[in-house]
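so i finally got all the pieces together for this one. its two components total, 233 residues if u count the protein bits. some of the lines might not be protein, just check the labels. i wanna see the whole assembly predicted at once instead of chain by chain like last time, that was a mess tbh
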Amino acid sequence: MKKQTFPAKIDVLSDVLGFLEYMLELYGCPAKIQTAICVAAEEIFVNIARYAYGDSEGNVTLGICFDEESHSIIIRITDKGIPFDPLKNPDPDIALSAQERRIGGLGIFIVKKTMDKINYTYENGENILTMVKKI
Amino acid sequence: MTIEIKRNAEETIIELTGRLDTTTSPELDKTLNEDISDTKNLILNIKGIEYISSAGLRVLLGAQKKMQKVGTMKLTNVREEVMDVFEMTGFSEILTIE
């Protein structure tokens, strides 16, 4: 797995996406799936940048690899912040009108909808979120 | 992301190009709330947007809520990747897309 560590700050988002795009390009990932993976990674990264470390600073590590057997991209995002399972977030009600719609929960919802598998564990003081997307 | 504003007596057309993500969405929000806050009919031409995350959806939802009260808002030239996100989140039902 190819890994890179970034400060958990929103203003490095373009570096995070740049790293992922570079790797996805190397794996020959189709453009549409690249976009879906980058959007999902952005949602997770931004959540960590906003909430994981409270007022202090910390890092986020992104790992990416291509599993030939399942023909899937595997992305692993880890941080040492507050234990938080984003998958436990309640899904938004997507049938409401514009005036009734609330803002929260959309990001994680998009991740759940676009990725083929998502798994969360907390191990050795780390939040570990793994996403799998077939290409 | 680049934001290009074209105005005439009837409507305001905003052409967007690039990524509508967490770092760029605040620019669009600012444009909508400050530069063209008096417009009654808003057209967002998003032909050049190939990427939208929840941050972009939030700005569009905010604009839709506001424009519904004073006039109209529609999105044109929506790409497939972006349309997928609209559909999975129910935004295709609440936005006017042409």
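The first strand of chain B starts at residue 2 and ends at 7.
Chain B touches chain A at residues 21-23, 50-55, 57-58, 61, 64-65, 68, 80-81, 84-85, 88-90, 93-95 (CB under 8 Å).
anyway lmk what u think
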